[in-house]
Amino acid sequence: MTEVQEHHAQLRAWAEGLYGLEAATELLIRGFNGRFADPGCPWVHPTASGHWIDFDSIPSLTGALSGGERRFLQITAALDDGVTTVNLGRCLAGLDRQHVHLVLAAVAHTAGTHQHQQLTVRHDGGLTVDRPGPMSRWDQAPPPPETPSREGGIGR
User: Is residue 146 part of a domain?
Assistant: First the structure.
């Protein structure tokens, strides 16, 4: 496992158990080639066992970023169940297709659709409990456009 993969695994472990926190963390890891989940970001803080993300601080620390990056990060921060609110219509209108898909997967995850169960009536009148899976999956996002490699790994 690379240093970047280990860092991402640690962040996922830190977020585990709270769907909104899991979704927000996954957005940072998957969006914009993961650069907003790097330890060098001002909202990623070290601990003795790895790192944690201060999602509430993100909106105040995005001034030098592009409009699309700021919108993406605002949505990410709002999923954490903290104090951040967002005008979803404005934010979504400024995202490219790949990042809109990631936000859809994050919203589906936050809502717990990956854990939903439903009763289905079979043809014979019996009932079956089905787990249909997430409404939108992380791995269905279109591939990102070609970008320079992440040589050097974390903290670019």
Answer: no
